[in-house]
Amino acid sequence: MVIDYIVEHLCVPRHTLGNHAVLARLGRLERLSVLESLERQERAAAHDEAFPLRPLAFHCRNCPANHLSRPYGCFGTIHLPLESAAEEWLLSLLPVCPSPREHGTAAAAQMPDLQRLLRHVQDRNVTGDWIAEQREPGGVLAGTESLVWQRRWRFRRLNLTSDQLLELLFFRGAIGPAMGELLCRALGIWVDGGLGPDGVAEALFTHPITREDGPGVCELKRYFMALMYACSLDAPLHIEPGLDDVLPSIETTVGLHPHLLPPGPPIPL
């Protein structure tokens, strides 16, 4: 099983081929690209999928949604089951609640948005129950138990599970700009920088990929970068979980890269 996502920014390829067609073709191409050796029939299938995309790919060069700096860099994939290390990293983004005296810290800056996110979880009845049921061989998660974040803050007990967080991120349909910004800020992924050359405040991505990151963490970081790009364009991030029966291990698909935001595996066009 995989999760495909794409920044829903109107562009020439999407206008020409249709939103669903672009996402479906890129998804199938990505599946084929991770196979170590392609049989003749698979090479033909890859050629057929890429044929309508290739002549339009030059439009991606200066596209503001291209967060991976490659043809169709608005698109990405997360391979499941999600590694335990990736799930642990995701929950580690939630802050240690600061004391009332700790003003100006990163954790203190996260707390207002995190409280808004927790109210959203309660109001929308985000239970994470379906995610919890998938903690079995062949499910969406490698970890067998849900991780729990608990803190006391201003005489209140705050709780959030990794199941709830994963449901919000991947299994509630498209994420709109307002919700995307709330998620990124509550997790400390997005912080405000100084003013840019155009006088507009810059948004800083706080968790670039490092050599120490495992494949699952790399994919999550690319996902959050895509979500930030979508928010900056006032566009939703379209998310489409789908079954896949040809994917090999994630180990063969994602390399470790030292620079700030490495591209994902190239899609053969």
Q: Could you write a compact summary of the structure shown?
A:
With 269 residues, the chain is α+β, with helices and mostly antiparallel strands. The chain is built from nine helices and seven strands; from the N terminus they run βαααβαααββααββαβ.
Features:
single chain; 269 residues; alpha+beta; three-stranded antiparallel beta sheet; two-stranded antiparallel sheet; 38% helix; globular; disordered C terminus
Strand elements, count: 7
How many distinct helices?
9
SSE arrangement, N to C? EHHHEHHHEEHHEEHE
Number of domains: 1
The percentage of residues in β strands lies in: 5-15%
Evaluate the radius of gyration: 19 Å
Largest sheet: 3 strands, antiparallel
Mean pLDDT: 82
Structural class: alpha+beta
Helical content stands at 25-40%
* Major β-sheet strand ordering: 2-1-7
Care to describe what's here?
- The chain is α+β, with helices and mostly antiparallel strands.
- It has one domain.
- A hairpin with a 2-residue loop joins strand 3 and strand 4.
- Helix 4 packs across helix 9, helix 5 crosses helix 8 and helix 8 crosses helix 9.
- It is globular.
- The C terminus is likely disordered.
Task: Walk me through the topology.
Blueprint: E1 2-7, H1 12-17, H2 19-33, H3 40-50, E2 75-79, H4 84-92, H5 106-123, H6 129-133, E3 148-153, E4 156-161, H7 162-170, H8 177-186, E5 190-195, E6 201-205, H9 215-232, E7 237-242
Antiparallel strand pairs: 1-2, 1-7, 3-4, 5-6
Helix pairs in contact: 2-3, 4-9, 5-8, 8-9
